[in-house]
TrEMBL record:
The keyword Cytoplasm applies. SUPFAM superfamilies: SRP19. This is Signal recognition particle subunit SRP19. Its main location: cytoplasm. It comes from the Eukaryota. Residues 191-201 have a biased composition (Basic residues). The lineage of its organism: Eukaryota, Sar, Stramenopiles, Ochrophyta, Bacillariophyta. It comes from Fistulifera solaris. Keywords: Cytoplasm, Ribonucleoprotein, Signal recognition particle. Residues 166-201 are annotated as: Disordered. Pfam families: SRP19. GO terms for biological process: SRP-dependent cotranslational protein targeting to membrane, signal sequence recognition.
């Protein structure tokens, strides 16, 4: 309907307003089926007791914390290494520490999702720590004993061998891809040279 003004009916010309208001941000929204679903964050308070039969009875008062970084030869003292590089081992995991403690029959609590505040990278790269009953050892002495046990662990040996094979496979694939790329470039250069010779004739 138009409006009356001085006896003249005025009619509005132009596009009508949409029934539903347009939100310019709608075009930027990611459809639900295309959204990346991240897994839930692990429970950092999760603990595994050893021996298992002491799960509900173990008193951890006085237990000492040991992080994998303490025994890691790839870490600097600033990053948390607590023993010499000669005694330390490369990239020990928290499961390695637990298995080494079990081989020494030492009571401990495994906390697989705890991060080390001194080395933030280990929170996603190599998380975890153990709480250890050091009543029969001094902490430094125990860390040295653990470092001796780590290279002998069957699971660790198998893991290192598997990682080595994976690394060799990746290096081989990279070398093959590079060789293929160089062959294509060489072929293109040769084709251009032949084309120039043909034009001279």
């Amino acid at each position: 309907m138009g409006k009356k003004k001085g006896g003249v009916r005025i009619k509005q010309i132009g596009p009508k307003a949409p029934a539903v208001p347009i939100n310019p941000m709608d075009a930027l929204q990611i459809p639900e089926d295309e959204m990346v679903q991240l897994p839930p964050a692990p429970d950092r308070s999760y603990r595994i007791f050893w021996p298992l039969q002491e799960t509900f009875t173990m008193d951890t008062t006085g237990f000492q914390v040991i992080y994998p970084s303490y025994l890691d030869s790839t870490k600097t003292i600033k990053q948390g290494r607590r023993i010499g590089t000669e005694q330390a081992v490369e990239n020990p995991s928290v499961m390695d520490l637990s298995q080494a403690l079990q081989s020494l029959h030492i009571r401990h609590v495994l906390q697989p999702y705890k991060g080390y505040s001194r080395d933030i990278t280990c929170q996603w790269d190599n998380p975890g720590r153990v709480l250890v009953d050091v009543s029969n050892y001094r902490k430094k002495e125990l860390m040295m004993k653990l470092a001796e046990q780590l290279p002998k662990l069957p699971d660790r040996i198998a893991r290192i061998e598997r990682l080595k094979l994976e690394q060799q496979k990746e290096e081989k694939e990279r070398a093959e891809a590079m060789a293929e790329k160089e062959a294509v470039v060489k072929s293109n250069v040769t084709s251009k040279k032949k084309g120039k010779k043909g034009n001279k004739k």
